[in-house]
Amino acid sequence: MKMAGLESMVVEEVRPAEKPVDREKTCPLLLRVFCSTGRHNSPGDYARGNVPQNELQIYTWMDASLRELTGLVKEVNPETRRKGTYFDFAIVYPDMRSPTYRMREIGVTCSGQRGGDDNKTLAQVKFQIGNYLDISITPPNRMPPPMRRPQPYMNNRPY
Questions:
Q1: Of 70, 50, 72, nearest to 59 (Cα)?
Q2: CA angle 59, 61, 67 (to 5 degrees)
Q3: Helix, strand and coil percent figures for the chain, each rounded to 5
Q4: Cα–Cα distance between 73 and 59 in angstroms, integer?
Q5: N or C, which end of the chain is more exposed by having fewer CB within 10 Å?
Q6: Contact by Cβ (8 Å): 58, 68
């Protein structure tokens, strides 16, 4: 019995160069943004035609970068301007197989610091008109609350 030789090949994915949008001639889209402090809104908050209360409406283009969107949020939300504030971006989109929404994280920016996700555009992260943008804003020097372990006994006696 003769075995066929196995070969492997690494192929670099080549993306077509993104054409810049002519913002003078192209109509902007309405981007519905929902911000919350320290966490993302739940996908369930978007169910049955509802949306979270904290809506920010931005007119922008598909070539808008996460850094540009961070700047627009900072313009209307002064407490997010402090250096070291993190902006964790996610796209909220309808699930085509069920009547629910899904959330996909797309990048993080930080006030006063450059990062690898700063130049990602809405087009590059496959944002589709009609989707929502959900941003978790974490102020500087604020850690998420620690996970609490349930106590095995209520009387807290030493072991």
A1: 72
A2: 90
A3: 15, 30, 60
A4: 12
A5: N
A6: no
Structure tokens at 68: 């540009």
Q: β-strand 101-110 against 86-94: which pairing, if any?
A: antiparallel
Report which of 57, 62, 82 is spatially closest to residue 72, judged by C-alpha positions.
Answer: 57
Q: Supply the DSSP string of 18-86, one letter for each residue.
A: PPPP-TTTSPPEEEEEEEEESSPPPGGGGGGG---S-EEEEEE-TT-BHHHHHHHHHHH-GGG-STT-E
Distance of CA 111 to the CA centre of its chain: 15
Per-residue model confidence as pLDDT tens digits over 7-35:
666 666 555 556 778 888 989 999 999 99
Tokens of 70: 């961070």
User: Tell me, what's the pLDDT at 146?
Assistant: 45
Q: What is the pTM of this model?
A: 0.76
